């Protein structure tokens, strides 16, 4: 890690809701003293396809008027970009703006890499669902980014095969389990779905829906609750289905998984709003045969979903043009033309509520052409997204999940033990990094 324990602790304290004033106390933000008037040339690190074309709209329009020019530098995503940002920040050479996944924000904030832009972008809070906006504040009065895209979770199923096997779309997880068992009785060679351990975001989203809060704060310490009651309920549910053979135990995104989807061996998928794009390449022969419904609920009558994926636009503490950078970040993620271009060029699902049923989202995805209410329904589901609760070592937790749950799924063994391993590994890593950890 690039900072001493003291500095890291001070920066972490900011994330623990000590507010924007803590920035000055930590000596972590000198951008208030930097000049921010006159022409500005900003650099933006992002991975979204076609982002340069979207930014051109700014440079030729609002940016030209305000003399704020933005240059996009294409980057890799995920942990690779986080590491690159932290390395650049250590040398005080981070770009003005970065695209950051929500779960990466605590890591960047705890390393003092992101500026509090609440004063510049707070006015756009109402443009986003509360559960999404909350992920950019880390539970404090500060705002560390503007939401860009989101991944509300939902249930996808082969409508033709549900009809063939006389299956009902499950409204609850109990009904989901019964549907899986009913399919096995009627067609033993088919699976309702699979439990996959090669994408940690799926499990994290399911835990969020159940009410899990994996990282919270207690005083000036982090508290890890990966093994909390909500997550254990999710782990036990899926572990039970895998153990009894009611669902498959194979990972997603493999040739075998693609074939299962394409041939109808797997007839449903718990996924997110971006699933149509994946199905287009994974199961091309099934176009027009799928339908989307809300995620099953833990109790009948509830309306809550989790999130799988999503990113934001943040301003770094190294930027000498914080106000200009924040102004661009707000425009990029709230302007109708910008959001329409992001959807068409980058394939994103916007976090801004108004954009979810306009522009590129007035017609359903081509793969779901027969479901005219696809995006109106998705917009309703997006509003019910549970807030995320991320910490400064999500990467460690995710790696532990893949290892522990991957082994448990393969062996059809107890998922509870895998959850314990994930909890213990995450706590041990926080302590090793020098963070205070509450019991």
Automatic annotation (TrEMBL):
Source organism superkingdom: Bacteria
Keyword tags: Cell membrane, Lipoprotein, Membrane, Palmitate, Signal
Keyword Lipoprotein: yes
Residues of the signal peptide: 1-25
Pfam families, per the entry: SBP_bac_1
Protein name per UniProt: Extracellular solute-binding protein
Organism: Streptomyces durmitorensis
